[in-house]
Design a protein that fits this description.
Chain A: Pfam families: BPD_transp_1. The structure holds 2 protein chains of 2 kinds. Chain A is mainly α. Chain A has 13 helices and no strands. In chain A, helix 11 packs antiparallel against helix 12. The longest helix of chain B has 19 residues. Classes of the chains: A mainly alpha, B alpha/beta. Chains A and B meet through helix 4, helix 6, helix 10, helix 11 and helix 12 of A and helix 1, helix 2, strand 2, helix 3 and helix 9 of B.
Chain lengths: 272, 421
């Protein structure tokens, strides 16, 4: 067998692998959107048409469903606030962990991860009692605080490894050239770390966006989309399941699409 | 780009303020029922619309439903005005529910009202709506019905013959059973299969008759679509024709009739040697002691019992009224199909109602698990029936003693916890 034919075979395997991976990701999304955009009667039919019939009955029912727009907006607010809080608290913590030695550092790292050891249904009851007493109940801030607790460990750990990957020498060089600590951070470290921080922000956003239990217990008037819909979707007729699925997936897709530049940049760092 | 984003935000804010009406004065109806989006939409738009000032109807999964209620009880103040749930959901909240004897519920039958007292002297909840389980068949399956069998008076043996004939004619098992994680399989064993063979749900759990019941079901399982362990709402598989004959809750088969009214028939559950066992399902409404405005809560409970509200509830949820009332002619196809089948089942000469578990408090989930585990061990894992029943009977006995729950129909009344022979 000649070298070229081996290479050609290798190429074919590579292309097949890539195609398989693409299908793996795109097929469910395609099915979701085809079914969401089909007339209810077509949903149970098979085979599917490649291009849906763009019947908006299911989707328009969905968005006509009173409170959906409201809940969507609440979800965005809670997720955005979670994102800000968890990066605002998590990134400095990650920086401190990677740059300074302080007593109890290992314990601190362990405790951060420990917060994920307790299942939310267990925590929700005392949290809800406390929230009702303090007036945080049924507020965007209250829910965002809970979601921040969930997202924080990831934010701390991701930013920790991120800052650890940026050589201290860069910072030191900046100091020798007259930068203060803060200037060195904002002018040298931050631009390098920004893509990673964006990625961990996306992660926080998605964690908050997907969370159901706390949202269902802690909000009444200000329900998030998941609390409002997710519990109903699994017991709804098939066409509505697809419409609801599409409605839940779409904003997350948009968001990730919007920050994809930073995500790719981060992978660039990882490859170097 | 920036101005576009700004414009979008403004648009969102405007639509937000338009959607969010005055909400605070509305009583909060916190419910585990009518969860599917279409049903909760109808509850809000049609059922609750007649209540002065409107109602905030919020359906929720049992977990968050209970946790939220417990949190309000512990905090000592709350938003929930009225609770809606199945008998089992409400029974775990017993001590924290307000006595509703003041409500005029004379139209509701005394047996059902008795359920709502949860074994105390007070009226802990008022029956709200009721349902049961039925069999459904695709009309294409009718030609394989065994000779001489009356679809309204089938026996389990005839059902097996029918399922076998259908499987042989079509080349694949066509019986469907909701054995998935969300499926209501435990109710079939508690309220249909076991009582039909043993006239008991608890006491005769490991009797010889119970062994026969499980043998029968194992036979039926051969003609059951093996994907049944993923089924939770049989209407989906009926519509896709993955199964032709199925058993499920009336609310979970409704969509099949509403989508294709001419293609399906509903009929009573089959009978065993002890009778045609079936399980009536009762949902109730209750008022927690933390309700913000007692008077308003009571008014809402009373409103739910009015004949017009009851009929609107039937349209919305496929749960039937708890009061005797004439149904209008323009009911949905699902109601028109289920009505006569339910009447045939409850009015059958061999009818044997097997009630929902009573007095188990928060042990209801564990009680169901006993039946689910028994099913999984015997049918899915293929273990010996006698061995499984003996070991599960121990679990069941311990549970009944722990809950100190006396027997309920069709088991004979007991002094102290219901015995497991």
């Amino acid at each position: 067998m000649s070298v070229t034919s081996v290479r050609r075979a290798g190429n074919r395997v590579f292309i097949a692998g890539v195609a398989l991976l693409i299908l793996w990701v795109l097929l469910p999304i395609w099915l979701l959107f085809v079914n969401a955009l089909s007339a209810p009667a077509e949903v149970t039919g098979f085979p599917k048409r490649f291009i849906p019939s763009f019947d908006l009955a299911s989707l328009s029912f969905f968005f006509g469903f009173s409170g959906v727009v409201d809940a969507l907006w609440n979800s965005v607010k809670v997720a955005a606030l979670t994102m800000i809080l968890s990066i605002g608290v998590g990134a400095p913590a990650g920086y401190a962990l990677s740059r300074f030695d302080f007593p109890g550092k290992e314990t601190f790292r362990f405790l951060v991860v420990m917060t994920r050891a307790f299942p939310l249904p267990l925590l929700a009851l005392p949290l809800a009692v406390m929230f009702i007493r303090t007036g945080l109940d049924d507020t965007i801030t209250g829910l965002a605080l809970v979601h921040t607790t969930l997202a924080l460990p990831f934010a701390v750990l991701i930013t920790f490894s991120l800052f650890s990957g940026i050589p201290l020498e860069l910072e030191e060089a900046a100091w020798t050239l007259g930068c203060t600590r803060l200037q060195a951070f904002t002018k040298v470290i931050l631009p390098l770390a920004a893509p990673g921080i964006a990625a961990s922000a996306v992660f926080a956003f998605v964690i908050s966006w997907n969370e159901v239990f706390a949202a269902a217990v802690l909000t009444i008037e200000n329900r998030t989309l998941t609390a409002f819909l997710l519990q109903s979707i699994d017991v709804s007729p098939l066409p509505l399941k697809f419409a609801g699925g599409a409605a839940l997936v779409l904003p997350a897709l948009f968001f990730i699409f919007a920050v994809r530049k930073y995500l790719f940049a981060m992978w660039g760092i990882a490859n170097r | 780009m920036k101005s576009l984003t700004k414009w979008r935000l403004t648009a969102a804010a405007v639509s937000l303020s338009m959607v969010a009406g005055p909400a605070l004065a509305e009583p909060l109806f916190w419910s585990t029922q009518a969860k599917p989006v279409e049903e909760s939409q109808k509850m809000r738009d049609e059922v609750m619309a007649g209540f002065p000032g409107g109602v905030d109807y919020q359906p929720s999964d049992e977990g968050p439903w209970l946790t939220r209620m417990q949190a309000e009880l512990q905090a000592g103040s709350g938003r929930i005005a009225v609770l809606g749930g199945l008998h089992g959901d409400l029974s775990s909240l017993g001590p924290d529910l307000v006595d509703l004897s003041g409500i005029d519920a004379a139209a509701v039958g005394p047996a059902m009202m008795e359920l709502g007292s949860l074994g105390t002297g007070e009226q802990k909840y008022i029956p709200w709506m009721q349902a049961t389980y039925l069999m459904v068949a695709n009309r294409k399956a009718l030609e394989f019905l065994p000779e001489g069998a009356d679809i309204n008076a089938l026996t389990y043996d005839q059902l097996i013959d029918w399922a076998r004939a259908t499987a042989e004619a079509t080349g694949g098992p066509k019986f469907g059973f909701p054995a998935g994680p969300q499926g209501l399989k435990h109710r079939f064993f508690q309220g249909f299969l076991l009582p039909a063979y043993t006239k008991s749900t608890v006491t005769e759990f490991r009797s010889d008759a119970a062994v026969t019941a499980w043998e029968t079901f194992r036979e039926l399982w051969q003609y059951t679509n093996p994907a049944a362990t993923n089924y939770s709402f049989m209407q989906e598989q009926l519509v896709t024709e993955e199964v032709w004959i199925a058993f499920d809750h009336v609310a979970r088969i409704a969509d099949a009739f509403n989508q294709r009214p001419d293609d399906f028939v509903a009929f009573p559950a089959p009978a065993g040697p002890e009778g045609r066992a079936f399980m009536p399902v009762v949902a109730g409404i209750a008022v927690p002691r933390t309700a913000p405005d007692m008077e308003q809560s009571m008014a809402l409970v009373q409103y739910m019992l009015q004949p017009e509200t009851q009929i609107a509830t039937l349209r919305a949820t496929n749960f039937f009224p708890v009061i005797a009332t004439d149904l209008p002619d323009d009911m949905p196809a699902s109601v028109q199909a289920a009505g006569p089948a339910i009447a045939a089942m409850t009015g059958a000469p061999d009818a044997l109602p097997a009630l929902l578990p009573m007095g188990l408090g928060d042990k209801g989930g564990q009680f169901n698990q006993v039946y689910t585990d028994t099913f999984e061990r015997i049918i899915l894992a293929g273990q010996d029936i006698r061995t499984v029943l003996d070991s599960q009977a121990e679990v069941l006995r311990a549970l009944m003693i722990e809950a100190n729950a006396p027997c309920w129909a069709p088991d004979a009344a007991s002094e102290g916890p219901c015995p497991v022979n």
